[in-house]
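Folding Task

Wanted — backbone structure
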Amino acid sequence: MTHTYKITGMTCDSCQAKVQKLLENIDVVTNVKVDWRKGEADITMKNHISTSVFQDALKAYPKYKLSEKAPMVMPVFEEEHKSWFQTYKPVLLIFSYITGITLLIQVLQGEFLWMQWMNHFMAGFFLTFSFFKLLNLQGFADSYSTYDIIAKHWRGYGFLYVFIELGLGLAFLIGFEPLLSNSVAFVVMSISLVGVLQSVLNKRKIRCACLGDVFNLPMSTITIIEDTLMIAMSAIMLLNMI
C-alpha cells in the first residue's frame, strides 16, 4: 500500500535525500519518493504504519514535520434557490451565441450547408468550453476527476482534456484533417458521456465541470445533451466522409 504524506521544512535536494533516507530505514517500508518542492512523500509499505512512526523517524531533525495529507474534497453542487432557467442560463446563452453566429455565417454565404454549419458549430463549442476551463485549470481537473471514468484513476487526464478540447476547436475551425478530428471528438466525447450518465443515473449531486469552475452548475440531463450532441454531429460528419 502507498500513502502520501505532507512534509514541511525541506528547502533543497539535500533535505529531500536526508528525509528519504530516514524514512527508508523503517523496516516495513519498501519504497519512498520524496519531493521537496511539493512538500510531499509517497511511502509504500508492506503493512499500514501509524503516522507517529514516520514522525519518530524524523525527530532527530525537528525542522522536518510530517503529517497526513488532507483528502481532496469533492466539489459538490451547492443547491441554490433558482429557477431552471436561472440555473442553466450560462449554458443556454453560450449555445444560443454559438448557434446564432454559425447560422449567420451560412446566411451570409447565400446557401445553407449542413456539414459546414456543424463543423463551425463544433469549432465554436470546443473553443468556448475550453476557454472557460482554462480560467481555472486546477479547479476543472478537481471537478472532472470526481466523475470522469479516466480522470478518476489518472487526474492528469483532467488537464489533458482541456487541451484536447482546445485542439479540436482549432482543428474544426481551420478544417484540419476532418476524418481525424471527428474521430477524436467522437471517442473523447463518448468517454466523457459514460461518466456523466453514471453520475446522473446515480443521482449524485455534484458540480458539472463542462464550464470549468466558473459557474455553479449541477450535473444533469443538460450535460448529457451537450455530450450527445457533439457525439451525434461528429458521427454524422464521419458517415458523410465514408
